[in-house]
Structure formats: C-alpha cells, structure tokens
Design goal:
450 residues; alpha+beta; 3 domains; five-stranded antiparallel beta sheet; 32% helix; globular
Length: 450
C-alpha cells in the first residue's frame, strides 16, 4: 500500500476508497441537519465542516484514522440506526411530536402516525434505552426515511382517536418544570444514576446536586480505580434540560466503563473523550475535573479538562487556601491525542484538617436581580464559614447561600463535591504520667504555642 506522503492528502487514499466515498451508499449517510457524517466502519458521527461537505469530511477522517484498513464496513441497517440515534439525541428536546406516548407507555411514531409497541417509556421516562429503541424503529420505518414528520394536529387527533390510549397534553403544552410530574420522576431517576459516596476511615465525602430544570447537565462520580485509588469527577455538559441530561446518562456509563481499564488520569480522560465525543452535538462539549485520591497517603492527583480549579482549605496549614489543577481542553472538542496533549497533572496532599471542594459554574455564576454574580470571593467566605460543619452541612450550606444571593433562582445546574480528611480513630497517641501536656491527635494541625 503506498505511503501517505502526498501533500494534497486526498491522493494518499486508495482509489477504490475514494470511489466509495463518492458513490457508495454506505458512505453517504448523514444526520438530518447535515452536520454529521456516519463513519461506515464504526458507526460514529464525524463532524462535517463548513467547507467541502460530506466528502471532504470523510476524506480527512479516513486520512487521520486506520479504520478503513482495520475494519469491514457495517451493514446499512446498522448505519441508519446510528444516524437516527444521533438525530434523536438532538431532536428530542426540541420536537414534541417525538415525545408522544400512549397511556400504556407505547410510542407514537410521528412519521407514520402509528403506535410502536416495541418502544416503551420506562417508568414514565425517556431513557437511553428508549432512545435506542426509537432509533431501531425509525431505521426500519419506510415513512421515516423522508425525514418529514406528520402534522402535529393530525398526530394529536390520531392519539385522541386511539381509545384514549394517548396522553398528549403534557408534551404539547409546556408546564413549569417544578410542576411537571414527569420531569420530577426523571429527576429522581437521574439522582439514582449518581454514585453512592464511599465510606473510608480517613476521609469523608459529601455532595450537593441541584438541577435547574428538573434534570441536570451536571454529574459527579466517586469510584475505585484499578490501582485502588479513588476517582473523583465533577462534570458539566454544555446546555441544559433533557438534551444535556441524555448526555449525562451516556457520560456516566462511559466514564464507569473506561475507569475500569485505566488508572492513569490523562489516559482515562483521553479514552473518555474518544468514546463520548461522537455522542455530542456539533458545538457541544463537557468541562470536567478528575482527581485520583490515594486513601493511604492522602496524595490526590488532579486534571482539569476545561473546568475551573478545585479548592483546598486548611486553617492550620502553611497554605490556608489553595487552588488545585492546571487548565486543559474541554472534553469533546478535539480528537484524543490533541486533547490529551493539553492536559497536565497537579497534585495535593490531603492531611487531617484539609477540606477539598469542586463544583460547577452554576455556583459562582449565580446572579441576583441586579445581575451581580455570586463569584469566588463569596464562595471563599461561605466555605470558611462552614468549615466546622459536617461534610453534608458544608455543601448544603454553601448551596443555600448561593440560592439566597440569587433570591431563589440560581439560573443553572449546581453541583458541589466535598472531601474532608479526618483524624484516624486509631492514631490517638498515648498519654504518660511524665508527659501530662501531650496533645490529643485531634489537635495535630493546631498552631503550636510559643
């Protein structure tokens, strides 16, 4: 096979591959908005630039990967399914005709006007599995191939005429999210997707999680890595509502999968970026902070991917307040190698008395009616004011003060994760008669008297 040395790029690809890019139906599948081309070897979405269109995007992608050397093309039906899956992720938050279900939970296909028994809501929610089933149904629906939905009023009439099966009002007439029962259930499900916080001898964990519109584009994760360190992640998907929440569901599953295979933080985030990138809409990204805490030594390695720094406080340490993490590129913007090159690890040692917090920008960017942001200075003051509280009281107290500043409406999703280094119960030194003034271990971080 000739080397890829041709300066023009296109000539470095085999003529047969160039021909397939131009004329093979497997190479011509794009999303409805013409923004992503479906790679026929992997089924992944590839962004189509403003110049050159599908063909140029395909050629550049093939030049930058070895998929055409290492894989066979997928069946057409699988590629159409992947196209519909990407389209649904984009369209579901925007198009109420896609969200019509009967009272028995079955879905009304808006392209054909027929109920699809194989597609069901799960406990009243549109889940990742629901989206997958929708994509499967649409990929085999002749009526959907045109990409044109039926008239909304006609679909409502069809639903009403189906022996009362359908309940359409909630999908065509928006209600305030706080009163939307379906959204409340979706919020509950999303809360259950988040990990339980571990209980360790020398560390305590707490989290505050407040969606702005029922479901959230924020997420956090605390789990064990293969090298037995504790992974700490706080992430924020660009955008809000259902669209961002669907990405959160995918992000959590993807993160848990790659974290079982990687202990190195940069390698882990590179793998996460490569996996999640094709599930993001054009222009969508995820800011993320990842830490790896050694529970035996207290050393925590940290990496920032477009996210702000973490805060570490210790009133009795040499540095009372420290920002941790060196800035890198957000997830989903570039390919894995380019992304990984921007990342750099920072480390901090958490000893008894240290308080570590990470949060999403819904905290510092919360505005009051005068458009005055809560900001970092108020955050520092709130953090110091709550240092003697329990971990959960600390994060809830900060969130409560943010809401008070914003007069009840923070205006964004808000997440706070805290880690407190505690005193080991078994480490209390023994007193002796000739040392009556020996301090308790609980005071090891106190400033010694002169």
């Amino acid at each position: 096979m000739p080397p890829r040395a041709a300066p023009a790029g296109v000539q470095a690809l085999p003529p047969d591959l160039l021909r397939r890019i131009d004329s093979d139906p497997l190479f011509q599948i794009v999303t409805l908005d013409q923004q992503q081309w479906i790679d026929p070897y992997t089924g992944k979405g590839v962004a189509i630039g403003s110049a050159g269109g599908r063909q140029q995007a395909a050629r550049e992608y093939m030049l930058g990967t070895n998929v055409w050397r290492e894989h066979e093309t997928l069946p057409l039906a699988r590629l159409v399914y992947e196209r519909w899956r990407l389209d649904l992720i984009r369209l579901l938050p925007l198009e109420p005709r896609l969200r019509l279900f009967g009272k028995d939970g079955t879905w009304l296909n808006p392209y054909s006007g027929e109920f699809v028994p194989s597609v069901m809501r799960e406990e009243g929610k549109i889940t990742v599995r629901t989206v997958s089933l929708m994509a499967d149904a649409l990929s085999s629906s002749p009526a959907a191939s045109s990409g044109r939905m039926l008239d909304a009023q006609f679909l409502v009439s069809q639903a009403k005429a189906s022996s009362g099966r359908a309940n359409t009002t909630a999908y065509f007439h928006k209600q305030p999210p706080s009163f939307d029962e379906a959204m409340e259930k979706a919020k509950s499900v999303q809360q259950h997707m988040l990990s339980d916080l571990p209980k360790l001898e020398n560390f305590q964990f707490a989290a505050h999680y407040s969606p702005h519109h029922g479901v959230s584009g924020d997420f956090y994760e605390v789990m064990s890595l293969p090298d037995e360190r504790i992974l700490l992640v706080v992430g924020d998907v660009s955008g809000h509502g259902v669209q961002a929440a669907l990405v959160v569901a995918t992000a959590l599953k993807t993160l848990r999968f790659v974290a079982r295979q990687h202990s190195d933080l940069i390698g882990l985030l590179k793998a996460f970026n490569d996996e999640i990138r094709t599930d993001l809409l054009p222009g969508q990204f995820i800011t993320l902070f990842a830490g790896a805490l050694d529970p035996d030594t207290g050393v925590c390695s940290c990496v920032r991917a477009g996210h702000h720094a973490a805060l570490v406080v210790n009133l009795h340490g040499e540095s009372i307040l420290r920002k941790v993490g060196k800035c890198g590129m957000a997830v989903g913007i570039a390919d894995g190698d380019t992304f990984a090159e921007t990342l750099c690890e920072d480390t901090v040692e958490l000893t008894p008395g240290h308080v570590f917090i990470q949060y999403t920008d819904g905290l510092t960017e919360a505005m009051n009616p005068a458009e005055d942001e809560y900001g970092e200075a108020r955050l520092y003051a709130s953090l110091f004011a709550h240092l003697k509280d329990t971990p959960q009281e600390l994060v809830d107290g900060i969130a409560r003060e943010v809401a008070h500043h914003a007069e009840g409406s923070v205006g964004d999703d808000l997440t706070i994760l805290a880690v407190i280094a505690t005193v080991p119960a078994t480490s209390e030194p023994k007193r002796s008669d000739d040392q009556p003034g020996t301090r308790e271990f609980a005071e090891v971080d106190a400033v010694p008297e002169n």
